[in-house]
Amino acid sequence: MPPNIHPLIVHFPIALLLTSVALSWAGLIWQGKSLDRAAWYTLLLGLAGALFSVISGFLAAAGVPADSPAMATLTTHRLLGIAVLVIFGLQALCAWRSKGVYSRNKRILHTAIQIVGVALVVAVGLYGGELVYIFGLGVASALP
Ligand code: HEM
User: Fold this and answer.
1) Does 143 map to a domain?
2) pTM over 0.85
3) Which residue stretches of 62-103 are H helix?
């Protein structure tokens, strides 16, 4: 069995994607300070991290027995992880197509998608933490 690298990777997309949204919102307030560019590159790095998290997550999940009590939480976590990849992928596609210039309505839609994205990132992290700290997935048994 190869080593489980999921816990090594997951903190990157969580930090990068949340930072990207924060930079993008800061760019609405302080315009002309390259915050939008910073948001764009952070988004790309976060997306790469999310892709590797999903791949490594599936590899980590392959070792979990089907009758594990963690299965329901794992299923929710998996769906949230995939949703994070899809929603931020969509956001990158929209930003790339519009070159970062939005009409008022598109800006509102973009911001709404960002809010959903932030909620999904927080939720995937919470469920991931539950898998480890409540169900003990991916950890050796604690010493008595
Ligand atoms: C954006 C995608 C994802 C993120 C950000 C993410 C995040 C996390 C986090 C924060 C943890 C807890 C790690 C720790 O505290 O050390 C975790 C654990 C876990 N995640 Fe994910 N996850 C993602 C996608 C997935 C997917 C698609 C699966 C596949 C089913 C998955 C399976 C697991 C498993 C099995 C664990 C338990 C610990 C382990 O065996 O590594 N994750 N995840």
Assistant:
1) no
2) yes
3) 71-98
Q: Measuring from atom 11 of ligand 1, which residue has the nearest CA?
A: 128
Residue 92 lies in a domain: yes
- Read off the pLDDT band of 134 (50, 70, 90): very high
Ligand 1 site residues, Cβ closer than 6 angstroms: 4, 6-7, 10, 13-14, 50, 53-54, 57-58, 60-61, 64, 74, 77-78, 81-82, 84-85, 124-125, 128-129, 131-132, 137-138
Task: State in Å: Cα 7 to ligand 1 middle.
Answer: 7
What is the SS3 assignment for 136?
A: coil
Mark out the alpha helices in the chain (DSSP H runs): 6-9, 11-29, 35-61, 71-98, 104-133
Which structural domain range is residue 15 located in? 6-133
Report whether pLDDT(108) > 70: yes
Most distant CA atoms of the chain, gap in Å: 60
pLDDT at 87: 98
* C-alpha of 59 from chain center: 17
The verdict on residue 116 lying in a domain is: yes
Look at phi and psi of residue 101 and say left if phi exceeds 0, alpha if psi is from -120 to 50, else beta.
beta
Residue 1 has what pLDDT?
59
